[in-house]
């Protein structure tokens, strides 16, 4: 793990592993007047990789994407897309990137087909319109006016417009908001196909399951800073295993043992008193085994039974909620 201080010192320095990255962000700060919305954010995305930027409302995700898109000049730090500064969308960046942003700029009076045709005529090397409409499942809506599409269908049209230009870098800002479960799963399938084709994808989403399904790496932002970053399994492992059971009637809570350095948290759920240990010490592959062995030995000595004993790893939701509480200050 890296502390916030280490990160501050290293954030602006180029790294050897930047070579080959499609997107590189180093020590990005972004201000709106005196308000600092982004405070020293760093990450990189390689071709074929999906990086999920998660975070609380107002954390600075959209501001970061808008900077990468070239709409905002950084207040400090550097942003590079294929080695180029994206500010002002120079041709070398514009032609190789595209985005599905919040609040699409669709023209309500055009039909789906007309919308796609306009974008097709403007693109340098577009995919065929029919192919893209088929991909996003809008073929049967091609003659329908944009105004008559549902919210989820409009998001699909946004995605179709982005895919038309064969982007090598794709920014997806909450792309499945408003979609039903089927549309969301279908969109995930499309995004997985893009990754396989080598597209570098930056995804922001409030659907944690979406990040769990798609992300090669993820970061959780809070108040302008990345608080947690890494491969999903590593991020979850950093939060430990949870061992819980119902406290036996004959045991007073003060007599519960510490396990692998973890003290129990005792809470009442319904009529029952539950003890929960969050075990973070020791080899991540073996610590649940050792925690259980210690508890079983303790229970055996007392000739008692640990009812409803369960072990589970932390979920992304656990981690996210801790970050939102301001409890997380380490980068995994
Ligand atoms: N044009 C602007 N002028 C002033 N403040 C702004 C502007 N745009 C965004 N902000 C502020 O900057 C902060 C970050 O906003 P941003 O939209 O980047 O967050 P976000 O992580 O995308 O949030 P959400 O998940 O709610 O979409 C917020 O406090 C927001 O109010």
Descriptive account of the structure:
This is ABC-2 type transport system ATP-binding protein. Pfam families: ABC_tran. Belongs to the ABC transporter superfamily. It is a peripheral membrane protein. GO terms for molecular function: ATP binding; ATP hydrolysis activity. With 332 residues, the chain is of the alpha/beta class. The chain folds into 3 domains: 18-96 and 167-239, P-loop containing nucleotide triphosphate hydrolases (Rossmann fold, 3-Layer(aba) Sandwich); 108-165, no CATH class; 240-313, Alpha-Beta Plaits, CATH 3.30.70. 32% of the residues lie in helices and 27% in strands. The protein has helices at residues 4-10, 61-68, 91-94, 112-122, 129-136, 151-164, 181-196, 208-214, 232-238, 287-301, 316-324, and strands at residues 2-3, 23-32, 35-45, 50-55, 76-81, 97-100, 169-173, 200-204, 217-222, 225-230, 241-246, 265-269, 272-279, 307-313, 330-331. A 6-stranded mixed sheet has the order 6-7-8-4-9-10, with helices on both faces. Strands 12-13-11-14 form a 4-stranded antiparallel sheet. A hairpin with a 2-residue loop joins strand 12 (265-269) and strand 13 (272-279). Helix 4 (112-122) packs parallel to helix 6 (151-164). The termini are close together. Residues 1-10 have low confidence and may be disordered. Bound molecules: adenosine-5'-triphosphate. The site of adenosine-5'-triphosphate (ATP) has 11 residues, from strand 3 and helix 2. The site of adenosine-5'-triphosphate has 11 residues, from strand 3 and helix 2.
List keywords for this structure.
332 residues; alpha/beta; Rossmann fold; Alpha-Beta Plaits; six-stranded mixed beta sheet; four-stranded antiparallel beta sheet; 11 helices; 27% strand; binds adenosine-5'-triphosphate; transport; AAA+_ATPase; ABC-2 type transport system ATP-binding protein; ATP binding
